[in-house]
Amino acid sequence: MTVCSHKQNALVGRRSPGRKAYFSSVRPAPVSWTGPAGFTLIEVLLALAISAIVLVAVSMAFAGAMQLREHASARLDQSIPAERAIDLMRRDLKNVVPPGLLLAGPLQSGAFQGGVDANDGIQLYTTTGLITPNDPWADIQKVTYGLQSSSDSTNASKNLIRAVTRNLLATGPEDEDDQVIMSGVESLTFSYYDGSQWLDTWDDSTQTNLPSAVRVNLQLAATDSSSPPPKPVQLLVPLMAQVDTNLLNALENMTNSTGGASAN
Asked: What is the pTM (predicted TM-score) of this model?
């Protein structure tokens, strides 16, 4: 009996490998045996908050870049007509013709026909006219700059006008070609240097020659009431064409004597 009881105890203490595998598959293994755990709810919420902050920062930077691009584009569109107007003024002033010569009249300041200001215009004779087979005119032409009221009633700005007269020998009314150089101008002023000081006006009755230099001040109007006006555009052109007064008198006397001899 003792031997049998010992054999039964030995069989009970030993288990087969299949039974051990069965129990291990039914019972879940401890956490430490299955690898690292997943994200917690706090970690997920923190990641979402960080992502939202990054997206907001990126969107604000993109919006700022787009606004800066639109502002730069608007400034560029506004500066192109101003640069073109300044180039035209510079070319006309650099090629100005002294008064008293053939087809050349005096340089005058003041408002041109249809102007809106008493000192917003200038009239000069310059050699910038193009000679073409269809236009039987000389290269000397009369050019007048001035401001006119804009047709847009919602905007208080003015238009910069360049009036050109090619037929300088016309016996009737002059045929002027008015060209709108640019719009959105607030003011236009000219200053004249006589060799010692700057003058606001230039009168051909007292100044028989050309000024030594002409200064142009072009003030553009603000795009809207909330934005400040842009900086004024300034141009300084020295006038190199100068004629001695004695030579002018000699030319006038020669012309008068020639005309008198022809009449006789």
From this structure: 0.62
Residue pLDDT, tens place only, 56-95: 999 898 888 888 877 777 666 666 888 888 999 999 999 9
Q: Please write the tens of the pLDDT for every residue from 116-127.
A: 555 578 999 998
How many Cα atoms sit within 13 Å of 155 on the Cβ side? 17
With CA atoms as reference, report the closest residue to 124 among 151, 150, 104, 101.
Answer: 104
Burial pattern 208-232, b for ≥16 Cβ within 10 A else e, equals ebbbebbebebebbeeeeeeeebee
Please, are residues 232 and 219 in contact by the beta-carbon 8 Å criterion?
yes
Instruction: Answer whether residue 258 is part of any domain.
Output: no
Residue 208: name the closest of 254, 252, 248, 250 by CA: 248
Q: Tell me if 91 is assigned to some domain.
A: no
Domain count, the chain: 1
Longest dimension (CA), the chain: 177
In a domain, 2, yes or no: no
| Residue 229 lies in domain | 96-248
In a domain, 183, yes or no: yes
Q: Do the Cβ atoms of 190 and 213 come closer than 8 Å?
A: no
